[in-house]
Amino acid sequence: MSFDIKQFRDIDPGQRVLMGPGPSDVPPRVLQALSAPCIGHLDPTFLTIMNETQDLLRHLFQTENELTIAVSGTGSAGMEACFVNLVEPGDEVVVCVNGVFGTRMCDIVGRLGGKLIRVDAPWGKTIDPNAVREAVKGKDPKVLAIVHAETSTGVCQPLDEIKTIAGDAGALFLVDMVTSLGGMEVAIDKMGIDAVYSGTQKCISCPPGLSPISFSPAAMDVLRNRKAPVVSWYLDMSMVSSYWGNERKYHHTAPINMNYALREALRLIAEEGLEARFARHLVNHKALVAGVEAMGLSMLVAEGERLPMLNTVRIPEGTDDLKVRKVLLSDYGMEIGGGLGDLAGKVWRVGLMGHTSRRRNVVLFLSALETILKAQGAKIIPGKALDAAAAVYT
Ligand SMILES: *Cc1c(COP(=O)(O)O)cnc(C)c1O
Asked: Ligand 1: distance of its center to the CA of 233 in Å?
């Protein structure tokens, strides 16, 4: 085998419009922050950046929780961090499952030796609080876990009633907010959430690599009163929190430049204002749905249960799923997601997350999709989508 360094060209991925389930488009200011000089993880300048990142995260989560930090790793690391710190072998854990990410939670609980109490709902539907109430009857769960924004289906899960069930059962309420954080209201103190994790590449519009998490005082108590040490050394929040806290004890080297990027993405969010940002996500979602429906296509999820940042559109019959996505990417530089699991080949997942959630992207997507579907001979209603979307904005 000959090795020729000339085969390895400069990295030049080109421009994309990222309208899939994440990552979303990254604003130039965030990319610029990434390229600032790398400094030491105990440099006073970096420690200040960490403190500011915590303040910005608390603002976004609308929380006073002291343990509010960015875990070094993607959203799944945040998921694992929550379970591994709060669950010990033999603990009963309720997990609500209506998509890929609830399923992943079950996998983690099993690996930790937790006793899984699983509550299922069909993919594309919300979890029924009555089913949760039934499942916890006569049980003593330590944690009740649920996904707020199921990115695999586009379902938005109401949390109020299920929070009350968790509280009545004496369980910590653990919520996956990977896709909701930054795109819709996530006020974790008001919502009574004890442990939450998110990711940087969905509605925060930062590259993937960090996972914001937050633990309530009740979750911290559970962590402090564990019988055995956390089985993951890397994700042990009792140690990681000493680095983020006043002691500044070395645990692992923070991904310095990723933290710069997150701080900048959070600063952009605070500058825009939470309410304005959530309203922007909602109006672009409504315009996209209006356009898609005017074209004669239908949404997987019922109105009133849809996420503003992730739209699941049913693929019309006789349409070549892969070919449509391939042409979108090659001719329009646009990425959308396909379906997962049972929904593979049945839906497209169209993200309007963070910086991607803009009118120009809605219009580009609708016109591109219409052109491609017409060329494929799909039965659609032509010429109506853009006007329907425009009407939402006026
Ligand atoms: C993306 C996502 C995850 C996993 O995050 P990774 O960054 O891919 O590890 C978990 N939960 C939900 C709801 C997600 O959308």
From this structure: 22
